[in-house]
């Protein structure tokens, strides 16, 4: 695309709801009051707030009848650095990454309509977790809002429920937590169950798998009185929606009576647990497991409120260590989830870091924070001090962090394994697996690192050849605990060329390993990391291994050529004077098209602006998780009168299987600009 633009330094403000007024960076937003909710309309300025990451499937599905875990995130009023849609330079930010252990994520604030910042929806969806916003009324203002939409006829409350469903559908999150924390008049409370039923029906219709959950607050007579469980006073609201989130001051008898009254819907009762331990509660802090133990004894679901306690109360200094400790204490009460689709690839990045890495090299120094770029997260198990996994920010293959596996191989034993991911899907006939790792410590040559893949036991499951690529005498993948040795390929099939090009590029101390696996009528079960020592030893041996990337790919899907970035266009130009007389500062919005679900993200580059012939090195401007990006504060040369300058912008798709895409499939835009 070639675009001609005339420079204008007249202010051209963008809507303050969607863009930061100082920088024009896109921001997440909320709605205050009934008027803002009812007047909301889809607006292309708000497109940055639309999640581009579809909700990943996983097993078991949400509607299975095992007890669930809901996390309600409430931190300092919300919309902190997470409101910057393209990220920020925040040092030591709060991140959540124990997605394998939870079922639902709620973003909570005290604004009337809390639309979850899109970075949270993207991170949760990539890991298979649905995200709910919050609709809240409270205090005297809340009473007025409720009178306005609940005291009249059905037309008023239906307008509210239809708007809430439209907002969830438009921004692609998954439903609402409804929290009416004010007393209600008789006419209001009479319309509350029909409102909840209508909202639930609208959300179910508009959002696949959508949810509406009611917070335990007002009673059926309109009194504001928290019940700390399900009873006859609040059952009418539970019956009208998908679940009840109870208040936190419960006792064991509340659990028992809630279970009895809920009957077959007992897993729709989410028993509230305040991690800050406020009021007369069981547990809290690092004793939250005491609450979980009791809740699970009664087969009920749990709603963990404000787990950001780890960050807010204990501080940011050792946050990642404390976070793993907190969730590690709860792990035995948190049913986990399995990945059930291919391709599967992750570099373990948390969506933050002290530097940004690419191919094992530091690409950009300095702190960054963008949860939209968080990758699929593994289990974080602790094995009685013998083995631990943690996030490591000092080195990475791609993104901001790697996964550090530290452990001890006991005396007389050859190897240890740690489960990274649970899988639950039919295996395709041919799989490719790749692994990038780095051994640390004084004697890395003592160890061999490999992947281990297990399948569910089956009479029909048959394993063919396991081949390591390129031909190295690697420890092979194992299936059903039986060992197979690699077979050297005499000639490489053409479909492997791309994979092998990626396989050979281990660098900066990183080692690349690739495997090919033939399976027939099998179902995949677990993907683990296996660390072995070459010689048995009467002594225990400690090791540290960094994992930079793991991929599990269906060979059949790799033959298709990658799609192309198309229709790259620029708009919303904002030219500003720069401190340097011969330069201008440029902001603009890029938009393009690409098949949904095919890209993990996009890397946006500038080839530099020039007013004379010549070439400049590409400069990374940032990463986009959707098909649009706001270029902010790019310094470009000012053309002299009668002259035009050129700025070339590139958009590189990063595919979900993380195989490289040839530059001729990237998007390219040439901006030719001149003075009036």
Automatic annotation (TrEMBL):
Gene3D superfamilies: Galactose-binding domain-like, Glycosidases. It catalyses: an N(4)-(oligosaccharide-(1->3)-[oligosaccharide-(1->6)]-beta-D-Man-(1->4)-beta-D-GlcNAc-(1->4)-alpha-D-GlcNAc)-L-asparaginyl-[protein] + H2O = an oligosaccharide-(1->3)-[oligosaccharide-(1->6)]-beta-D-Man-(1->4)-D-GlcNAc + N(4)-(N-acetyl-beta-D-glucosaminyl)-L-asparaginyl-[protein]. It comes from the Eukaryota. Keywords: Cytoplasm, Glycosidase, Hydrolase. It is an enzyme of class 3 (hydrolase). GO terms for cellular component: cytosol. One of its GO terms (molecular function) is mannosyl-glycoprotein endo-beta-N-acetylglucosaminidase activity. Residues 79-355 form the Cytosolic endo-beta-N-acetylglucosaminidase TIM barrel domain. Residues 559-674 form the Cytosolic endo-beta-N-acetylglucosaminidase C-terminal domain. Its EC number is 3.2.1.96. Pfam families: Glyco_hydro_85 (PF03644), Ig_ENGASE1_C (PF25529). It is found in: Cytoplasm, Cytosol. Belongs to the glycosyl hydrolase 85 family. Endoglycosidase that releases N-glycans from glycoproteins by cleaving the beta-1,4-glycosidic bond in the N,N'-diacetylchitobiose core. Involved in the processing of free oligosaccharides in the cytosol. This is Cytosolic endo-beta-N-acetylglucosaminidase. It comes from Cuculus canorus. The lineage of its organism: Eukaryota, Metazoa, Chordata, Craniata, Vertebrata.
């Amino acid at each position: 695309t070639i675009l001609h633009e005339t420079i204008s330094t007249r202010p051209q403000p963008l809507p303050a709801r969607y863009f930061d007024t100082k920088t024009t960076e896109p921001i997440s937003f909320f709605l205050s009051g009934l008027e803002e909710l009812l007047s909301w309309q889809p607006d292309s300025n708000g497109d940055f707030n639309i999640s581009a990451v579809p909700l990943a499937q996983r097993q078991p599905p949400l509607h299975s009848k095992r007890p669930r875990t809901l996390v309600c995130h409430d931190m300092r009023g919300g919309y902190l650095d997470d409101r910057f849609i393209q990220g920020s330079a925040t040092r030591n930010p709060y991140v959540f990454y124990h997605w394998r252990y939870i079922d639902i994520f709620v973003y909570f604030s005290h604004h009337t309509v809390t639309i979850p910042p899109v970075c949270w929806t993207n991170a949760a969806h990539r890991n298979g977790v649905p995200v709910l916003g919050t609709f809240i009324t409270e205090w005297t203002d809340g009473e007025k809002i409720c009178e306005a939409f609940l005291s009249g006829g059905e037309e008023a409350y239906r307008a509210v429920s239809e708007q809430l469903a439209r907002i969830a559908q438009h921004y692609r999150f998954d439903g609402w937590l409804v929290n009416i924390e004010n007393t209600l008049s008789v006419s209001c409370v009479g319309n509350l169950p029909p409102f909840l039923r209508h909202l639930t029906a609208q959300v179910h219709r508009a959002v696949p798998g959508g949810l509406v959950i009611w917070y335990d607050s007002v009673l059926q007579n309109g009194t504001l009185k928290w019940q700390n469980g399900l009873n006859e006073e609040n059952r009418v609201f539970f019956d009208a929606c998908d679940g009840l989130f109870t208040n936190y001051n419960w006792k064991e008898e509340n659990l028992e009576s809630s279970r009895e009254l809920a009957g077959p819907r007992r897993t729709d009762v989410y028993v509230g647990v305040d991690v800050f331990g406020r009021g007369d509660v069981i547990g809290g802090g690092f004793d939250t497991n005491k609450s979980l133990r009791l809740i699970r004894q009664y087969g009920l679901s749990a709603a963990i409120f404000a787990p950001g306690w780890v960050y807010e109360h204990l501080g940011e200094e050792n946050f990642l260590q404390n976070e793993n400790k907190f969730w590690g204490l709860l792990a035995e009460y948190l049913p986990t989830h399995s990945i059930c689709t291919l391709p599967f690839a992750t570099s373990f990045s948390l969506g933050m870091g002290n530097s940004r890495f690419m191919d094992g090299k530091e690409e950009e120094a300095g702190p960054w924070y963008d949860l939209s770029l968080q990758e699929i997260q593994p289990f974080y198990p602790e094995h009685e001090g013998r083995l631990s996994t943690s996030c490591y920010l000092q080195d990475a293959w791609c993104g901001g962090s790697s996964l550090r596996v530290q452990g001890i191989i006991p005396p007389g034993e050859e190897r240890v394994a740690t489960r990274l991911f649970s899988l639950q899907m039919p295996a395709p006939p041919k799989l490719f697996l790749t692994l990038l790792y780095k051994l640390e410590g004084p004697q890395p040559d003592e160890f061999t690192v490999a992947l281990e893949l297990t399948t569910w036991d089956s009479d029909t499951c048959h394993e063919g050849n396991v081949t390591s690529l390129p031909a190295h005498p690697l420890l092979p993948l194992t299936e059903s605990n039986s060992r197979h040795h690699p077979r050297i390929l005499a000639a490489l099939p053409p479909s492997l060329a791309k994979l092998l090009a990626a396989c050979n590029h281990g660098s900066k101390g990183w080692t690349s390993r690739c495997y090919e696996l033939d399976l027939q009528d099998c179902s995949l079960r677990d993907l683990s990391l296996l660390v072995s020592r070459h010689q048995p030893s009467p002594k225990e041996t400690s090791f540290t291994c960094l994992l930079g990337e793991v991929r599990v790919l269906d060979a059949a899907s790799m033959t298709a050529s990658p799609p192309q970035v198309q229709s790259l266009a620029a708009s919303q130009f904002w030219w500003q004077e720069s401190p340097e007389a011969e330069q201008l500062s440029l902001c603009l919005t890029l938009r393009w098209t690409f098949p949904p679900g095919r890209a993990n993200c996009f890397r946006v580059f500038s080839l530099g602006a020039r007013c004379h012939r010549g070439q400049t090195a590409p400069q990374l401007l940032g990463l986009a998780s959707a098909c649009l990006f706001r270029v902010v504060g790019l310094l470009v040369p000012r053309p002299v009168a009668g002259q035009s300058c050129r700025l070339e912008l590139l958009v590189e798709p990063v595919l979900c299987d993380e195989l490289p895409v040839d530059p001729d499939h990237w998007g390219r835009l040439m901006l030719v600009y001149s003075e009036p």
